[in-house]
């Protein structure tokens, strides 16, 4: 039995200290509960991904979490779909523009892939993700050139609604997980970059691996930039 590091008393004290009125406390408790549920979902998802990488079957995973193989696959295997989970509610304006730009780059494709998201990140040049890519790529513009070369240039009829590829959906799930892992309440372009790098089977991650951009280096740089920004406000 794993002893949870989060104690109910600590949560109660935190809410009570931040909100003086009882209705404000109630609203804050509801919001915090939703956040904790999301954290729990991503915690399980993290270890499901780890188990799969270690070679565990879906039957084994289902038995470990008390469901059938089919139920485990339905919950954790992402398929092509125009619907996303999680939503874009906590995305910054820049991060939302990246998704819009990705749709634009995929206008002649049947689906939106990680490669289109990567192009959207680089188009949003003022974002931390684009600056991180520029810092670590071997030479200026090599990542854009590499991803353009990796695109399927066959023009196809775009369905409506246009689905996100399975790899793209996984990268966006990992985007939210990266934000939660770093303790951020928002999702920015930097989290999308880390999500793309974490989805190693996606085209975006494969392209960046050839241009010198690694997840470890990107995370260190992003963390440092946040630290600088916080220090500048003090």
TrEMBL record:
<dbReference type="InterPro" id="IPR044217">
    <property type="entry name" value="CLPT1/2"/>
</dbReference>
<dbReference type="InterPro" id="IPR004176">
    <property type="entry name" value="Clp_R_N"/>
</dbReference>
<dbReference type="InterPro" id="IPR036628">
    <property type="entry name" value="Clp_N_dom_sf"/>
</dbReference>
<protein>
    <submittedName>
        <fullName>Clp domain protein</fullName>
    </submittedName>
</protein>
<feature type="domain" description="Clp R">
    <location>
        <begin position="88"/>
        <end position="229"/>
    </location>
</feature>
<keyword id="KW-0677">Repeat</keyword>
<dbReference type="Pfam" id="PF02861">
    <property type="entry name" value="Clp_N"/>
</dbReference>
């Amino acid at each position: 039995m794993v002893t949870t590091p989060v104690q109910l008393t600590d949560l109660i004290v935190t809410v009570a200290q931040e909100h003086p009125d009882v209705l404000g406390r109630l609203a804050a408790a509801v919001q915090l509960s939703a956040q904790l549920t999301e954290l729990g979902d991503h915690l399980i998802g993290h270890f499901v991904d780890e188990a799969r990488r270690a070679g565990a079957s879906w039957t084994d995973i289902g038995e470990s979490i008390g469901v059938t193989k089919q139920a485990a696959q339905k919950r954790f295997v992402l398929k092509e779909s125009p619907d996303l989970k999680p939503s874009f509610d906590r995305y910054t304006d820049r991060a939302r523009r990246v998704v819009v730009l990705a749709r634009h780059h995929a206008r002649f494709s049947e689906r939106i892939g990680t490669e289109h998201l990567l192009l959207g990140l680089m188009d949003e040049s003022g974002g931390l993700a684009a600056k991180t890519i520029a810092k670590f790529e071997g030479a200026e513009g090599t990542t854009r050139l590499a991803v353009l070369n990796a695109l399927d240039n066959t023009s196809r009829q775009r369905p409506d609604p246009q689905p996100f590829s399975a790899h793209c959906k996984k990268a966006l799930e990992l985007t939210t997980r990266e934000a939660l892992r770093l303790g951020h309440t928002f999702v920015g372009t930097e989290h999308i970059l880390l999500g793309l790098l974490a989805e190693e089977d996606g085209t975006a991650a494969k392209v960046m691996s050839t241009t010198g951009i690694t997840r470890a280096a990107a995370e260190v740089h992003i963390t440092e930039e946040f630290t600088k920004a916080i220090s500048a406000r003090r």
